[in-house]
Design brief:
Chain lengths: ~230, ~575, ~200
């Protein structure tokens, strides 16, 4: 799909999205109306939320782009701007809210923390990026992204929306989409999609321990030397 | 503190010879009290010696000496320096008597010490985890507890240079995430405890007028249009009246203190920006003061004035923002906020031009500030301080103070008496609105605040309206200080000594506090002589002011809870740290 | 006489004044108020009245010289067009970075195996970078500096958000364009240092 194609939009398409879908006129109408009336959900986690509020305020004013109201209720919101660090205690709520949003819905990871954990990534209650749990559409690096950077990110989201086609879009299928299973707070955060993985890790750990114990017993039996302590995790 | 003991501190060693001794370690000060007699000593301190204000409780894990040390900082509400008490307890069995019945403000802080360090406070009415969640494995701030993404004990990590490969650390974790489970953990059969433990701590009152009424538990948050961040309130309601209330926090716990122990001293500076993320300059200020106390250096004259200018600009910014948010909570959706944000944008332009970033300024260094004022900025600051900000504060005053709806909803609502305010360890505008004229810039001056002429604002009703009026008045006083600082701003170097990225701080402890816009922001830093802090604790004003939320809300309506929260002016970055 | 409700009326009057002023100012200033640098500058002054909005993306508010976003590496242009990377792979930026997002592989001479003062590989994970500016502040060779470019949003972070040496290198001319005062001061300091170190017949060993 090239720029000379009469059905191509006037906007420059990010390279990773080129050549993927053919957008018809009906798609263009849907995309145009959707991308010019994105209502963000009032969802601020941390410092980036203050820059989001500044973007909503008079100097940068994202209602010029159609984001007129920030809706507190997820049912009425179109985009969830995850602004701030995602912590394990908050993730069940975030996933629940995402499930409650009505389609079409988008997620914008604002800032370094929401994209990939940010400076707090090494922490024990920090999730390294909200894309561990939700499908993210646009990432905006920065700590915090200035309002102009956030607006650029929102324009990128609009451009991405303009690439959608009714034929391939997940929102217009017969089958209802399955909600993301809500994580549970245990000794550490438990993602229900990883039950198999946890079981497998337990088996591997038990196996390793058994082998180590057998090796230690063999070493003791062989040389009468004191068995060395193995350090497990 | 690495200074000698303040002269007016009582001689506890003579008073309680068997139970109290001086802390004789080099670089340390204060008294070490035997755990069994802590309550008696604290009683004497409060009632005989006048130390009625318990400002900070924290604990340090001295792994090499196999003990945990709980550290208390007490003050007199009439002013003066700190009295430091320490109680030692073992690491395996850590039990210390709780001070909640003497100082109700200890409630949330003792819960935090239990959560992060595992010290059990006997006699605490509700000792549950506060920043992590019930069921979390281990006590994270203990020195032998390692996080799943652990790389090395302290930074800088050797893996980054000279053979640094680009790898994402989650790729090395089997779950592609920051997760680790205890051995043999059966995830599928785990059911979390639920909130029953939390709900059972709410005190159920009797029905009104002898009628048997049903009391309902309502959760506000953590995602709520008005809770100033991810903060949850569990309210027990009888109709519309609040019977009891519990704040639940930890939804933004970003492990600031654990990361702080891994960082070097200077690397902590940008992390302090993210504590009270609306006022990064005052967070930097407190941390710089504390480490300079440990290092025994003072900043240059020009740097002192620049620091005060930035701190007071940030105070004006914060108070205007708080007024805007309060009006948001009252229902005036966004118009006062927009006017306030205009002023904020102009002040942020100055911060951006001076330090490089609007919000995360990272401006202060040990011994001064990082950059000098660029050309033309001083004139911009003058324009704001002498022309625009006074005009706009008057406009805001005219616009909002006489508004009948504001008055009807704020006068007499959320009352906190003076005695309650001191007992609950509140600080900042909340304390001063209740009639206690305690402002650290006057009570225990730091930096060059003793050179400036300004009034400590105080009000006596202790309701929301007073807190709103105090913030406007304090903004005016800040403009007064700014005018004096701009007049006296000297020329000269902005940093004492050469810029150093790795400072070796002498062993010892220091507690430095500043009058942040939200209250007393304190930093407790313990150094063991190396380049990284041994313990790094932040005494967050919003966190401790929340102890008063339940007291203020009881008997009021549910709609008032939101406004009361707005009047305390919280920011989640420092509550959850 | 105190009229009940007068406070509300006064408040509404303030809002009304703000609202009407925006139209009056528009008429007074005319079309040169919008989409011109002078107009944008007017809206940043302490005496700004009327519309406060800066209409991104048609009007971009210029960032000050000290503004820091993501880091970049500086190279000087040699007369023959090749790049002289200033970085010597000393590792200070990587050590001083608070979240440790900089990873450097120092070059080594393939023949002798000894280390060479140049980076073979240089990575910055911008999903971790906190834009603090310490790397730029403590670099002794003026090699890494903070960029002004904030338009870095992307749709795929795993592919794009670890910047490597090629992505990070930008010319010294670009640096002088975005930070003229700083660049001039640093160039002068480097030239003075180079002049001071010029070998004389006695010191040339």
């Amino acid at each position: 799909m090239t720029q000379s194609d009469p059905s191509s939009p006037r906007y420059d398409i990010p390279p990773e999205l080129q050549g993927q879908v053919a957008v018809t006129t009906l798609d263009r109408i849907y995309n145009w109306s959707r991308s010019n009336s994105i209502w963000p959900m009032m969802f601020g986690l941390a410092c980036c939320a203050i820059e989001m509020i500044a973007t909503a305020a008079s100097r940068y004013d994202f209602s010029r782009f159609g984001m007129e109201v920030m809706r507190a209720s997820p049912r009425q919101a179109d985009v969830m701007i995850v602004s701030g660090t995602v912590t394990k205690k908050m993730v069940p709520q975030i996933v629940r809210l995402y499930n409650q949003m009505s389609e079409p819905k988008y997620v914008l990871a604002m800032g370094a923390c929401a994209s990939g954990g940010g400076p707090f990534k090494e922490g024990y209650t920090v999730v390294p990026g909200v894309d561990r749990f939700l499908p993210v559409d646009v990432y905006i690096p920065g700590c915090p992204p200035t309002p102009q950077a956030l607006l650029h990110g929102l324009i990128t989201l609009q451009r991405k929306m303009q690439q959608e086609s009714l034929k391939t879009s997940p929102w217009y299928r017969e089958k209802t989409s399955t909600p993301i299973p809500v994580p549970i707070l245990g000794p550490d955060l438990i993602d229900p999609r990883q039950y198999d993985l946890i079981r497998r890790q337990n088996e591997l750990a038990a196996q390793a321990e058994a082998e180590a114990a057998a090796a230690a017993a063999a070493a003791e039996a062989a040389g009468g030397m004191p068995a060395e302590e193995e350090s497990h995790e | 503190m690495s200074e000698r003991l303040d002269q007016s501190i009582p001689d506890l060693v003579t008073r309680f010879p068997e139970w109290v001794r001086l802390d004789e370690r080099a670089g340390y000060a204060g008294f070490v009290v035997a755990a069994d007699h802590l309550i008696t000593v604290a009683w004497a301190l409060r009632d005989e010696f006048g130390y009625d204000y318990l400002s900070s409780i924290t604990a340090v894990d001295y792994l090499p000496e196999d003990c945990l040390e709980v550290v208390y900082h007490l003050y007199r509400s009439i002013g003066g320096g700190a009295l430091v008490l320490k109680v030692r307890t073992g690491r395996a069995q850590s039990r210390v008597p709780s001070l909640v019945h003497l100082y109700p403000g200890a409630e949330l802080q003792e819960r935090e010490v239990w959560d992060l360090l595992g010290v059990h406070f006997s006699g605490h009415p509700d000792l549950r985890r506060i920043l992590t969640w019930e069921g979390f494995a281990g006590h994270p701030l203990r020195k032998d507890w390692r996080e799943p993404f652990f790389e090395e004990e302290v930074k800088p990590y050797k893996s980054r240079w000279p053979e640094g490969q680009p790898r994402r650390i989650e790729d090395q974790n089997p779950y592609q995430n920051n997760l680790a489970y205890p051995a043999g953990f059966d995830a599928e059969s785990w059911t979390p405890d639920g909130d029953e433990a939390l709900y059972s701590t709410l005190t159920r009152g009797t029905g009104q007028n002898g009628l048997r009424t049903d009391q309902m538990i309502v959760n506000l948050g953590p995602q709520h249009p008005s809770t100033h961040g991810v903060f949850r309130i569990v309210a027990l309601l009888d109709g519309e009246t609040v019977v009891d209330l519990k704040p639940v926090m930890g939804y933004l716990h970003r492990n600031h203190e654990k990361i702080g122990e891994r960082n070097t001293f200077l690397q902590n500076m940008p992390f302090t920006d993210r504590l009270d993320y609306i006022n990064s300059m005052s967070n930097n200020f407190g941390y710089a003061l504390t480490v300079e106390r440990l290092l025994g250096i003072r900043p240059t004259e020009r740097a002192e004035y620049l620091r005060v200018i930035m701190a007071e600009l940030t105070r004006v910014l914060n108070h205007l923002f708080a007024v805007g948010f309060l009006l948001n909570d009252l229902g005036a959706f966004f118009t006062p906020m927009i006017y306030v944000i205009e002023e904020r944008e102009l002040i942020l332009d100055i911060f951006e031009a001076v330090s490089g970033s609007r919000m995360m300024c990272n401006y202060f260094r040990f011994g001064g500030v990082s950059r000098d004022l660029p050309a033309g900025i001083e004139q911009k600051i003058r324009d704001l301080v002498f022309d625009r900000l006074p005009r706009k504060i008057e406009e805001l005053d005219a616009y909002l103070t006489g508004n009948e709806i504001v008055r009807a909803r704020c006068e007499g609502v959320g009352v906190l008496t003076a005695a309650q305010a001191v007992a609950l360890s509140t600080s900042g505008p909340v304390l001063r609105a209740s009639g206690i004229p305690y402002d650290i810039r006057r009570a225990d001056p730091y930096s060059i605040y003793d050179r400036f002429d300004f009034d400590v604002c105080v009000r006596y009703h202790g309701d929301i309206y007073d807190r709103y009026l105090i913030r406007l008045e304090e903004a005016r006083q800040s403009l007064r200080i700014l005018a004096q600082a701009l007049k006296d701003l000297p020329e000269g170097p902005i940093l004492a000594g050469k810029p150093q990225h790795t400072v070796r701080v002498p062993a010892g402890e220091a507690y430095g506090r500043v009058e942040g816009p939200k209250g007393e922001l304190g930093y407790y830093v313990v150094s063991n002589g190396k380049a990284n802090p041994w313990r790094y604790h932040v005494r967050a004003p919003s966190f401790i002011n929340l102890t008063a939320l339940a007291e203020m809300s009881r008997g009021g309506k549910i709609a008032d809870v939101v406004t009361i929260l707005g009047s305390i002016d919280i920011v989640l970055g420092e509550i959850d740290r | 006489m105190k009229i009940h409700g007068f406070g509300i009326v006064r408040g509404l009057w303030v809002t009304f004044k703000h609202f009407v002023t925006t139209y009056i100012e528009d008429v007074r200033r005319g079309p040169r108020f919008y989409k011109t640098p002078a107009g944008i500058e007017q809206r940043r002054r302490a005496d700004a009245t009327g519309i406060f909005t800066v209409q991104y993306p048609e009007e971009k508010l210029p960032v000050p010289e000290e503004f820091r976003y993501l880091p970049f590496l500086v190279y000087d242009e040699n007369p023959d067009g090749s790049r002289a990377v200033r970085c010597t792979a000393c590792g200070i930026c990587s050590k001083v970075c608070p979240p440790q997002c900089i990873a450097i592989v120092r070059s080594s001479d393939p023949a002798t195996g000894k280390s060479v003062a140049a980076p073979a590989e240089f990575y910055i994970d911008v999903d971790i970078c906190m834009n603090c500016g310490f790397c730029a502040e403590f670099c002794p060779f003026d090699a890494i500096r903070m960029d002004h470019d904030y338009e870095v949003a992307s749709v795929d972070r795993l592919a794009h958000h670890i910047f490597d040496l090629n992505r990070l290198l930008k010319s010294a001319a670009y640096y002088a364009r975005i930070r003229p005062t700083n660049a001039a001061r640093e160039d002068e300091a480097r030239a003075a240092k180079a002049a001071a170190k010029k070998p004389t017949p006695e010191t040339a060993a």
